[in-house]
Amino acid sequence: MSKLTVALVAHDHKKPELLAWVHNHIEIMKQCDLVATGTTGGLISDETGLEVKRFKSGPLGGDQQIGALIAENRLDALFFFWDPLNAAPHDPDVRALLRLCSVWNVPVACTPATADLMVTSPLFLSSEYKPIKPNF
């Protein structure tokens, strides 16, 4: 059985929240291949010891690199703790990333509550579950 590839992304004000969430679900995260934008990935790796493939920082193209994984059907889930109260200079990239998740039917969680529900679902690590991918 191949591991799920999971992306972890957080805006600056949400990084502590994502880090706490990863700590709470570290046993599940250990069973996944993790990718992340640069700063977030470094923080998670340093604070948890988890192996994380790091892309560029979000504003420097990391969001788009993760978007490319989605478009290539190489990402199974996205956990993106974005900050709705602070505008980011790369908001168009953020919208594009969330849009790609909808286009390609990739599960995405933007809050700890949704992320909790997603990873505790019996379907999350199940090799039996295969989301339907659109055929364009």
Tally the helices: what do you get? 6
**How many strand elements?**
5
What class, by secondary structure content? alpha/beta
Describe the main β-sheet briefly.
5 strands, parallel
Uncertain ranges? none
> SSE order, as H and E?
EHHEHEHEHEH
- CATH topology grouping: Rossmann fold
Query: How many structural domains are formed by the residues?
Result: 1
CATH class category: Alpha Beta
Anisotropy-based shape: globular
CATH-level-4 superfamily name: Methylglyoxal synthase-like domain
- The amount of helix comes to 40-55%
How is the secondary structure organized here?
Elements lengths: L4 E6 L4 H10 L1 H4 L3 E4 L1 H11 L3 E3 L7 H10 L5 E5 L9 H13 L4 E2 L2 H8 L17
Parallel strand pairs: 1-2, 1-4, 2-3, 4-5
Helix pairs in contact: 1-3, 4-5
Catalytic activity: dihydroxyacetone phosphate = methylglyoxal + phosphate
Keywords: Lyase
EC number: 4.2.3.3
Question: What report would you give on this structure?
Answer:
The protein is α/β, with parallel strands linked by helices and 136 residues long. The protein has a single domain (5-119), classed as 3-Layer(aba) Sandwich (Rossmann fold). The chain has helices at residues 15-24, 26-29, 38-48, 62-71, 91-103, 112-119; strands spanning 5-10, 33-36, 52-54, 77-81, 108-109. The chain has a 5-stranded parallel sheet, sandwiched between helices. Strand 4, helix 5 (91-103) and strand 5 (108-109) form a beta-alpha-beta unit. It is globular. The two termini are 28 Å apart. Belongs to the methylglyoxal synthase family.
